[in-house]
Write a structure and sequence with these properties.
Oligomer: single chain
Low-confidence stretches: none
Radius of gyration: 48 Å
Order of helices and strands: HHEE
Number of strands: 2
Largest sheet: 2 strands, antiparallel
Structural class: mainly alpha
Length: 114
């Protein structure tokens, strides 16, 4: 019998860094992407909250503007102006009309001469 033939395998070498580089880069890219998504979502929520706050403020200002317009209308009514003229300025309606002529210094009563 002949001696069994043994086959020799080439010696194993330690794995090089090139085989681990791609998974490492993909892991880093996934982490960076995840952090970026979180930051964008946070910014979006902050902007949505600010938009809601600004809409509420606009609604409040619209109501206040309407109230101010009503108040202005009330303050400029003829009856109120007449009341202020009578009470604060002590103004009264004239009982008779007196016309002043530019030629003479004495006022002449209105309503036709006597």
């Amino acid at each position: 019998m002949s001696a069994p033939m043994t086959r020799r395998l080439p010696p194993r070498t330690a794995p090089t860094g090139g085989g681990l580089m791609l998974p490492l880069l993909l892991t880093i890219a996934a982490l960076v992407s995840a952090v970026w998504v979180v930051q964008i979502k946070h910014g979006n929520r902050a902007l949505t909250n600010e938009q809601s706050r600004l809409r509420d403020e606009a609604d409040h200002l619209e109501v206040e503007w309407s109230q101010l317009q009503l108040e202005e209308a009330a303050h400029s009514s003829h009856a109120r102006i007449e009341q202020i003229a009578r009470e604060q300025l002590k103004m009264i309606e004239p009982r008779e009309t007196v016309m002043v002529s530019g030629r003479s210094g004495a006022p002449a009563p209105a309503g036709g001469g006597q």
